[in-house]
Amino acid sequence: MKIQVVSKILDANERIAVENKEAFDRHHVFVINLMSSPGAGKTTLLEKTISQLKDSISIAVIEGDIAGVDDAMRIEALGIPVVQINTGGYCHLDAGMIRDAFNEFDLTKTDLIFIENVGNLVCPAEFYMGEDIKAMILSITEGHDKPLKYPTMFQNSSVILINKIDLKPHLDVDIDKIKTDIKKLNPSAVIFEVSCKTGEGLQGWIDWLKTASTSKRL
Ligand code: MG
Ligand code: ZN
């Protein structure tokens, strides 16, 4: 019985996700589901990325958190549309939450939507919400064992950012092992080594993003 209930929830989620995707496609909006553990740097990555792109690309953000509005306030300070979802305890976003949120945006005037998922390395990767791609951040402070311990998120993400590389001298972390294990799980993943703090490596990600979001507008 329990399994039946779970699959019904997933079926309902999938139906709404397909409708979301149709709306995004109709308006040529490129949508990224950004996932990571708590504290890996999702909001900081968004701040750096949006600052560089907001004059050339029209961006909106959906912020997912269990509670609080801190992240939405950081994004709002950049002068772009943002909706904060408080899940009230749920550990991931789902398609219904996203449908309610993006209805606040004018999709005809939007090129790119970032969905910052709830910080959690497990179930966010299992809920499709209608996004074009999933992207994830792994902070090197989390250790090099994470890809093999939490394979689903690494398998489902088209882009993986390895963040906080400025901290490498202080850590016993094997970044080559992280990359090798990601390639085993997901050979086509695009990997960027970055420091959102110093800006190192971010240009590659920004260029990739420009190309990806532009391709949907053509
Ligand atoms: Mg955040
Ligand atoms: Zn969850």
Topology:
Layout (H helix, E strand, L loop, with lengths): L1 H25 L3 E7 L5 H12 L5 E7 L4 H7 L5 E5 L8 H8 L9 E5 L16 E7 L6 H4 L1 H6 L2 E5 L11 H11 L4 E4 L8 H16 L1
Parallel strand pairs: 1-4, 1-5, 2-3, 2-4, 5-6, 6-7
Helix pairs in contact: 1-4
The site of zinc ion has 3 residues, from loops.
Offer a quick outline of the entry.
This protein has 218 residues and is α/β, with parallel strands linked by helices. It is 41% helix and 18% strand.
Low-confidence stretches: none
Assembly state here?
A: single chain
How many structural domains can be distinguished in the coordinates?
A: 1
CATH class bucket: Alpha Beta
Instruction: Determine the structural class based on helices, strands and strand pairing.
Output: alpha/beta
Any idea what the CATH architecture is?
3-Layer(aba) Sandwich
Report on this structure.
This protein has one domain: 3-Layer(aba) Sandwich (Rossmann fold), CATH 3.40.50.300. The protein is globular. It is an alpha/beta fold and 218 residues long. The relative contact order is 0.17. It has a 7-stranded parallel beta sheet, with helices on both faces. Helix 1 packs parallel to helix 4. The protein is built from 8 helices and 7 strands; from the N terminus they run H-E-H-E-H-E-H-E-E-H-H-E-H-E-H. Magnesium ion (MG) binds at residues 42-43, 71, 116.
